[in-house]
Amino acid sequence: MASRLNPYLNFPGNAREAIEFYRQVFGGSLRMSTFGEFGNAAPGTEDQIMHAMLDTDRGFTLMVSDMPPGMEHQPGNNISISLSGDDADELRGYWERLSEGGAVAMPLEKQMWGDEFGMCVDRFGIQWMVDIMPKQG
């Protein structure tokens, strides 16, 4: 298997809700493991997500987990997940679903460099950028 770079997102107890939302957005196959499945879980965390992985038909992989007890959840503004390509209908669909219930920082619209581009924060606080490039040739 070739090396891959995948986003891995951490949540303060709502990772299951978040990854199920992303499965609705992107489709694909979802695998989840809870802290309880591996025994010795802290009380109240048995059903929280220790690791979940979403693999989509388009080749996207997204991983998530809940923060275990004792680890502080510190969401930041130093990372965004970027979706790009020239399949305008597909990317607009992702944009619509990701921005629903969230906040649009920059509307998805034609930019001076020729692409359609937008930025939003989804309802889980994750920043997304969508870039629709003109089809070549």
From TrEMBL:
Domain Glyoxalase/fosfomycin resistance/dioxygenase, residue spans: 6-130
Record protein name field: PhnB protein
InterPro entries per UniProt: Glyas_Bleomycin-R_OHBP_Dase (IPR029068), Glyas_Fos-R_dOase_dom (IPR004360), PhnB-like (IPR028973)
